[in-house]
Structure formats: C-alpha cells, structure tokens
Amino acid sequence: MRIPPWVGVAPFLAFAFLFLILPSGVLLVGAFFGGDGHFTLQNLIDLGRPRILSAYAVTVQLSALTAFLGVVLGFLLAWSVTMGGLPATLKGFLSTFSGVASNFGGVPLAFAFIATLGRVGLLTAVLKTFGIDIYDQGFSLYTFLGLTLAYLYFQLPLMVLIITPSLEGMKREWREASVSLGGGRWTYWSRVALPVLTPPLLAAFLLLFGNAFGAYATAYALTGGVINLVPILIGAQIRGDVLHNPGLGYALALGMVAIMAASIVVYSWAQKRASQWGL
Amino acid sequence: MFYILGALYFLVPLLATFLFSLRGKKDEIGFQAYLNVFADPNFLKSFSFSLEMAVLTVVLGLGLLVPTVLWVHLRAPRWKVALDLFSLLPFVVPPVILAFGYIKLYGPAPFAWSSSPLLLAAGYVVLCFPFVYRSLDGGLKAIDLKRLWEAGASLGAGPVRTLFTVVLPNLRSALLSAVFLTFATVLGELTLAVLLAWPAFGPYMALVGRDLAYEPAALAVVSFGLTWAFLGLIHLFSRGDHGVSRTR
Known about the structure:
The complex is a heterodimer.
Chain A: H1 5-30, H2 42-46, H3 50-82, H4 88-103, H5 106-117, H6 122-129, H7 144-169, H8 172-180, H9 185-213, H10 217-223, H11 230-239, H12 246-275
Helix pairs in contact in A: 1-12, 3-7, 3-9, 4-7, 5-10, 7-9, 8-9, 9-12, 11-12
Chain B: H1 2-21, H2 32-39, H3 41-74, H4 80-92, H5 95-106, H6 117-142, H7 145-154, H8 159-170, H9 172-188, H10 191-195, H11 201-211, H12 215-238
Helix pairs in contact in B: 1-12, 2-12, 3-6, 3-9, 3-11, 4-6, 6-9, 7-8, 9-12, 11-12
C-alpha cells in the first residue's frame, strides 16, 4: 500500500501549526478584540499614540540604519576578503568567525560593548589618556548611537555571510568582457557589477532590517529595557501590564509582524531576481 | 585594506572584554572574576538547565525534522516549497512574538503549559528550525539520496536499517552542523527564556550584568569561547565529507 505524500509531512505540519502558526495567529486576532471581548479597531487606532508611534519610528530608524551600514560596510569587507586575494585558510577562519559573530548577540555582546565603550570601558579609558572624554562630549553607550554600534557587531558578519556567495559567483569573464570592450574600473562597477549585485544587496538589506527590527536580547541587555523600541515595548507588555490593555499589546505585535512579513515578501522577490544571474 | 579595519572593529571589543574580566580584584590582574563566576551555584544551575534544554531541543528538533526532510526529498518533492516557506516564517515571528503567543495561548487553562519545559523546547525548535533545515537541505543536495536509498533497498536492507547505516552517516557533517548550531543558539538564548520565566543561562547572564561589573565580562568571554568552540567543531567536521558523491 502506497502511503500518500502528505502523511510524512503531517507531524511537522502539526508541530508548526501548534507552535508557530497558532500562537502568532492568536496574537494577531487578539489585536482586534477589546478588553470587553468585543470586536474593535480601537487597538489599531491606539497604535497611533505618540509613545507607540515613537517606538515604531525609533525601531525602524535603528533597523534601517544598521541594515544600511551593515550592507555597505559588510559589502566592502566581503569584497576585500573575496577579491582581495586572501589565503584560503584565512578565508575559512573568517567564515567561521562570521558565523560566530552573527550569533554573538544578546547579553554577551552587550557586556562586550560595555567593557569597551561603557563609562569605565577600555576604549573610553584609552581615549581619556589622549584627553578625549567621550562621555563628557555627550556620548553614551546606552542610547540609539550605542545600540547602533552594538547591532552592527552581528549585522556586519551576517552581511558578509550572505553576500560572499554572490561575490564569489561573479564571473571573471564579465570583468574581462568589460575590459576587452574598453571599459575601465568605474564602467565595470557602475554598468556591470552593481546592477547585477543589486537584487542580492537588496535582499541582504531586507534580511538585516528584519534581523534588527525583531532583536530583543541585545537591546534589553544593553539598556535594561529603557530604550523605546517595539520589541522592548512588547516584552514589557508581556512581563507586566505597561499598557493596561492586552489588546494594545497584541496590536503592537500585529504591527511588528506586518512589517517583518512585508520585508520578507520583498526579500523573496529580490532573491528570485538575484537567481537570474546565478547569484 | 578594509579587512584590517573590520578586524579591529571585531577584535577590540573582544579584547576589551577579556581585559576587563581580568580586573576582578581591585588593582590586581587576575582571574578572580572567573573564579567568582564558577563558584556561583546559580552559574552551574542555569548553565546545566540550558544544556539540558539544548539536548532536548536537539532530540525534538532532529527527531522531527530529519524524517520530514528525508520524506520530502524521497516521496513528497512538491512539499519542498512549503518547507522552504516555513523556514522563513520564524524570521517573521521573532522570539518576542513567539513568547507572547505562547503565554496567551498555552498559559491559561486548559493547557497551563507555560510551566512545562517542553513548551520552551518547542519554542527553541521553532527558533532553530531555519538553521537546522538549511543544514540538512545543504547536506542532502550534496548526496544522491534516491540512489543511496535504492542501493540500500536493493541489497536487502529495510528502511530503518538504510536510514541508520546508509543515509545518516553520509549526512554526518550536516547533522553535526545542525546539532552545534542548535547548542550555540539555545545556550545563549535570552528572549524566550526570560519572557517565559525560566532559569536559563541567558537570563542568568542578564541578572549578573545588572548587579556586578567584572563577572559579566568573564561570562561574555566564556560564552564567546564556547560558541567559537562549537562552530570551530562544525568547520572541522564539515571538511571530512569529501568521500561522498556529488551530483548537481
């Protein structure tokens, strides 16, 4: 007797349904119900409250900034590694390191940055001996700028990991063709390489954006939950009734999932375009 | 020369953390902070809890995913698209949201599961799923599963025997990679653990970070070293996979 295909996938589907689909669905549906159990759009409207809008704005800014910097700097880093003619052993080491560093988030990362740029951090102290007191100048690790620096620590390696296959897939023949047709370096980059690399770069940006947007651990560990970010707000709602209205918490979650889902959709589209060139 | 700048950016915080951790005793350079950490009973408690959770997650996750991925590869290729889609979903539903959903759905009666470690493990399986799936999928792409399976069958092995003696050994590096990535993820995980109120290693580190100055740095060094060790092991084992047929 032949077992139908879906039977083998059933346990996984059941698991995914129970522990991924259903819990998120319940949250998203809950956003449409008020404290009294009636259907309402009030929660969504309440998302327009200044504190919440500000949380979304700051989170989007942080995610976009670290994604952009991650893409640009990570691209330069990856390019200098793949095209810069590094020996193979060093490349292997770097890829392992990128794997480690992109997972090195949350609490240990926060500690590492506090040890570096905190009030008594190593770099802070070193700069002091040169007469530069960054904290006097208004810098603080426990702010937007500090978070940006910390987020980059896992964004950059992620970028390197994502874009290296694409860079390695760039065929030498393209460069040679461009040169043989009389084009210089600038022509190659502006007319050949960057246009081809745009879909993978866009995909990478979206992945990094989503990665930063959903990040909770690093922000929590670094700022103790005092910075106004959407994940932190949701976390605060889970742990105590900060908003005095669970429906609003669910609406927050809905907003977050909507943004993540949108970025994943565009990411998938960009990935498809990238595969046109075999990247 | 960007990699020099990049290297600096990545190495300086690590160096700073290490040097900071050596300042455990006033005006003395030593490993006092590390001693304090290891002497803290909560360190061992939380670390072993997270270790147990990691093992549970590996068993649950691989037990669920390996048969599924093999099945899809052999008997249900049309479902591959669905699996690929599912591997993107945990990205759309980050741990914060997942924790929120679990508490709302499985917290109250009739479930009351929020006090069951299995719920945490389930959450971890979901979190690690993209990595595990990508490992397994990559490993399967490199071997000709159908042919291997048929060869085993034609030599008289039943499906279970073929699975354990033919298929799994050829997936060794993919499996190890999945196991180590899961371990690394679960050991350091904070969000699910703290929001579901479990005494895991992540929340322990956060607590230490709030009260003490040098011990957190020591913890960070230990944690980073562990992750490095795991991923280095993956790299080491993944290089031994060259005797396997590669089909495009």
